Amino acid sequence: MSSEAPAADFVLPFGRYNGVPLAAVPSEYLGWLLGKVKLSTGIRATVAAELSTRGHTVPPAPPPRPIAPCRRCGPNVGVSVHWQKLRNGQRRLRAECRRCGKFLTYPPSVMPYTTMANAALAPHGVNAQQAGQTDGKR
Length: 138
Ligand SMILES: [Zn+2]
Hints:
binds zinc ion
């Protein structure tokens, strides 16, 4: 018995069950949604909570969209991902063409991109654990 039950009045804002209260949506569909569709963090958490309340396993989120390759060099060259430090002290990921260095995109800070960026840091003497901490102001 949870005192906060936001799932009860949550209504799906899209898809086949658009406008249907979460509680009335079949578990099958909720499982499909979690495993196949890119959801915002809030919606994902709500749907996952509903599904696990029903005793179902919550599937892992789908992998992020792949980075589109460099138009000049093609897909075989590969992409390099690294952390970029912003003026406000935050970091974001930046993807570049491995051959010509052309900027491609800012990928989301999720695996496998974070892993790639941390691996890129390693040869420069910054260990991955340290790089993973964002609140390390001293
Ligand atoms: Zn290129």
